[in-house]
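Predict structure. Chain length: 364.
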Amino acid sequence: MRSVGVEEELLLVDEASGEPRALATAVLAAATREASERKEEVFEAELHREQLEFATRPQTDMGELAREIADCRADAARHAGRHGATVVALGTSPLPVSPSVGSGERYRWLEEHFGLTTYEQLTCGCHVHVSVESDEEGVAVLDRVRPWLPVLLAMSANSPFWQGRDSRYHSYRSRVWDRWPSAGPTDLFGTADRYHAYVEAMIGTGVLRDEGMIYFDARLSRSYPTVEFRIADVCLDASTTVLVATLARALVETAARQWKADEPPVPHRTELLRLASWRAARSGLDGQLLHPLTMRPAPADEVVRALYDHVREALEDSGDALPAREALFALLANGTGARAQRELLNRTQSLGDMVIACARRTAR
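Prediction complete.
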């Protein structure tokens, strides 16, 4: 069974107003003191002081993964609560904010080299790591999951607001993130050697600081023997995070089996994949998506079912077929985090009240 680990980025916000607060240093200090007693580091700093990141352990059981995500979210809220703040799983801040860049050398380098782009990256994503046996298998997987990644973005869409305004997108985070020069979909690599040569060439330009700035939608992890899916928004509900992780593992297993059976990847051009990601960001699950196999418009529920059918065998083998199917139908019926945010705003007529309601939902 392939193991799965999840990294989630959370916004730190005032517990009364919902406004982002630059409290990462203080919250991390509290978390670190507790972690030293447990001998387990969970939380990390991110680019901006208004956010916090945690990483789960590698898990093979999705029920255990769900419990760990819930525990990490609750712990993050508890640590923030000591400073009059809380955490909220939103891809962007609905309220206006002037983010503050962290003090580390790496963050200062980004600030110096990328200017306004760095300041505008107060965005929260969800990264899913799925184990692979080798870089060769990992690259074969990357080549074969490319057309399915926009579907994961549509399912996770949770960032409709930007600087106090409705962006008209379901995932505006992904549009902001794509301002980095290395972000987005990739061409077919073919072999691990070609992948690594491509990465080395990108770093050799001097535009990127190091391999950590390879911001592909999916990449080989530089730290773990995994394929890392980076396309998703942080999800409002932990159940959606688990669904995305479940489907990511099934995509990896399906792609690896295709590779071993000498089935070639779908040869869509990168330009089409960019359009598919834009469509997913714009519509979420409330409109049309580009079908991964044909790159033609199709209803979102049809495309989601196509993803399920594509990975059904892997889901059945891991025992995840029924839970994933039920979670997919629930997501299609209830909507994404983006829809939930808009519905909450319609009820409360206040962005701040909406954020606080989402914070309660995050820690629930």
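Summary: The longest helix spans residues 238-260.
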